[in-house]
Amino acid sequence: MSSVKYKLSFLGLATLTLLATTGCASFKLKNPPPGLIEVSSSQWRGSADLRMKAPDNVGLNITTFANHRGGTLPLWANDMVKKLAARGYTLESQTPVKSANGVAGTRFDFSYTPLGAKVDPVAEANEKFYTAILFVTDDWKVVVQLAGSESLKAAHAGDIERILKEIRIRGCKVGSKVCKAGQPAPAIGVVVAAAAEAPVDPPVEAGKTKPDGPGTDDEFAPAP
Amino acid sequence: MTNQQALASPRRWIKRLIPAVLLLNLGCANIGGSASYADYARTADALPAAQTVSITGADRPYDYRADGEYDFASDLAEDSKTSAADAALFGSRAQAEAPPARTKPGEPSTKAIADEQRGKAEPGEPAIAKPDNPSLDHGRQIIYVAGMQISVYNRESAMATVEALPDKLGGWIHMRNENQVVLRLPAHRLKPAMAQLSTLGVVEARTLQAQDVTAEYVDLESRIKVMRETQTQLLELLGKAKTVEEALHVRKALDQVTMELEVALGRMRQLSDLIAYSTLTVTLVERGPQDNIPTSNDPFRWVDSLGVEATEWR
Question: How many angstroms separate the CA atoms of B51 and B58, rounded?
Fold first, then answer.
């Protein structure tokens, strides 16, 4: 009898250890857009990374970074836009979005010509579109990136919409101020899409009206 | 006690005066030695002005290659019987092909050189004179070897651009493999070439090594000059030889000198080539998701790993 108890307690401990080390992923994308094939996927202590590729060489990358105390969506969005601009990315539009479970994020559409492409005689073929969606929670910064040749931008326009409908972001704590920090101010000279197109509500706190809101245990449950 | 102090006082004065007298004497010796300084100054004036090979291209009007190259036309000519004629030809061609002396228009170059050597050159004009006789102008002979490692988005496209560079700048491709090209470019075009290549992508490493070979160059030049003179004299002797034994004896010496001259000329050709054309090794690395692109030095470098490259699979 005692040996059974010992075995059960050992199994429980092992399960707890496994859960503690792997943690829950900072995001989950159940049904990726059709035509994208998974290249790699990893998860470690909540930090996750997913890479997918379409046959036409359009790539999707969803990656995670740990958030720091004081880090909010407006702050990190500003940081990201400035640093990408320094690398030659031109911000074309900025749109407020939200994830399938209601976490607020911002979509940035950039155009980009890789370094060296200007001296290339076929420079036009090197022009890229680059869309980055930034979500910031108490624990994580999650960035959804979709990029490819500029000529394929229209063909993949629906991919981002589909991803937003499917992706669930984790890491908002109960009563979190980070998740309610609001949208970043529009960057100078950037066309901001009409807010009516994608109304942003503050994420629903755990244990309140929506049981599957961010911060709850079953936050990856289907959205209403 | 007072008397002793009174007596000690002059002694103390004498002790203090001795060093002053010695100093005065030394001073007089220096005055007398001013002539030797003047001699040094004259010696320095008499020396040919050192010339710097600039890779910056700041001295563009000056054709560097002519400085770095040796006139081999006379060397290739037949040695026997024509060395004197060759020497004359060498002198005239050197004058004809020498880079234009940096003079004011209409002034003879020798005068300009003399003026420049006296420090009368106008402001803005290079203070370095180019003597008419290139054998006197040893200059500063430097071999430049440079290297660049560039992280590029598309390696094939970047490689094509690198390979086209020598055609534009007047050089050639020395070696090429999958991700590396070794270019030989005119020394004065090295810096513009490196600047142009840096636009291909993110420059991860840049090296430049300069090797000063002035001493070896000057030594070779002197040896060649002496050996040429010896060769001429031996040829004259050969012409004056009365017996076969004498002729054979002179011929043996002549062969030895000719052989040494050829070795020296070969080394001179090699040096001239290395000086005139710099070696630039370009290594291209294709950027991929694993390569961060540094944007700033702040503690939050998360954006470095974002971008189009992060969605690529290379």
Answer: 14
